[in-house]
Design a protein that fits this description.
114 residues; 24% strand; four-stranded antiparallel beta sheet; 2 helices; alpha+beta
């Protein structure tokens, strides 16, 4: 199972809605939602040693459609880098943030292991 983090997502804003009761579903972070969109598309290469990090710059339209995905920091494993980039492109969209917007550029970090 790969792990991910997202940079570029706006910070959560104070809300005027009532607090969530413990019995209600917990709030999911924007990074967790982005991760959930991309992870099903990652085909894990067997030749990855250790737990290297790949950083991908994702450019999106306001609708969330992915325009481009570019490796900005290589993990040192070309197959892992390509696998993550392909997964972002196959996912083809990024979720909206709490304000209903999609950041135009995201930097997403992925590791092969949690």
């Amino acid at each position: 199972m790969a792990s991910a983090s997202v940079v570029g997502a706006p910070a959560p804003q104070a809300s005027t809605t009532p607090p969530v009761v413990a019995s209600q579903a917990p709030e999911v972070s924007y990074a967790q939602r982005v991760r959930a969109v991309i992870l099903p598309y990652i085909l894990f290469p067997n030749d990855v040693e250790g737990n290297p990090v790949t950083q991908i710059r994702v450019t999106t339209r306001p609708t969330g459609e992915v325009i481009d995905a570019e490796v900005v920091v290589s993990s040192g494993s070309e197959s892992w880098d390509k696998s993550v980039r392909r997964a972002v492109l196959r996912a083809n969209w990024m979720p909206q943030d709490v304000d209903g917007k999609v950041p135009p550029v995201l930097i997403i970090s992925f590791r092969p292991k949690p």
